[in-house]
Amino acid sequence: MARRRKGQKVDGWIIVDKPTGMTSTQVIGRVRRATQAAKLGHGGTLDPEATGLLPIALGEATKTIPWCQDGSKIYTFTVRWGVATSTHDAEGEVTDESDVRPTREAIEAALPAFTGTVTQIPPIFSALKIDGERAYDLARRGETPEMKPRQVAIEHFILTGMPDENHACFEVLCGKGTYVRALGRDIAEHLGTLGHVPALRRTRVGPFTEAMAISVDKLDQYANEPPPIEALLPVETALDDIPALAVTETMAQLLRQGQPVEAPESCNGTVQVHDDVGLVALGEVTEGILKPLRVFNLNEKRGHDVDNG
What we know:
Elements: E1 12-18, H1 24-35, E2 40-42, E3 51-58, H2 65-69, E4 73-81, E5 83-85, E6 94-97, H3 104-110, E7 116-120, E8 129-130, E9 133-134, H4 135-140, E10 150-164, E11 167-174, H5 180-190, E12 195-205, E13 208-209, E14 214-215, H6 216-221, E15 244-246, H7 249-256, E16 261-262, E17 269-274, E18 279-286, E19 289-295
Parallel strand pairs: 1-14, 3-12, 15-17
Antiparallel strand pairs: 1-3, 2-3, 4-11, 4-12, 5-6, 7-10, 8-9, 10-11, 12-13, 16-19, 17-18, 18-19
């Protein structure tokens, strides 16, 4: 008796505008129910109280997740001056308070110190693993995990508003691994006060923008539609920043079998490889030789493709 396949073959990206109060895992569950996809993954989680873009990869798109996660991100957030919390956001317990409120001039003068390559200590309430356990699990048991400093890249960090003396609003364009909650904590300390981040929104992840996103409510409306649903973006959307390389069908077949081929153009580094049908693979060109890194099975007529990664 043939084994029944769980879920359907659905390939592409769905970008969900996550509401506050919902975990990233819950959003993935909603996408699974709406699409019946057999395989899903995400392009970077958001804290439950944060809002904004949560890219969900389906099927073959899961092979492009590392490139999505490596992309730069834009966040808008608010810092509440004078109050420190255990989690560096509004969900934690108040741990200390300060009467100091920085001026606009002081804030703007501090921003260059947080631009470029910045050393940051992640919050103890984070998903980082310490000796095999999530830091937030250790923290919830009353332990204090040792969080090692790490370097993160911040391309720009600007002050966008000051609603009152207790709050300041910012926008930051940053690289992989940046904790905005830690950024709020650190700039407050730099300004001689305390602070936490009560509001946080992610507005861009790599090539994914707010214009591509749908609400959870809209997602639920697709549950009765057969795939592919309207909101599904092509697998290669996550690879927009990677140069494209065209190959012949013969070369494409060799790449699908995991074999290297001679690069048809003068190029080096990572490339997305296309034939006349569509995306074939992600590859690496070195000294004129193109080697497949990830091979995609996006067209049934191509037969049984080989996944090299």
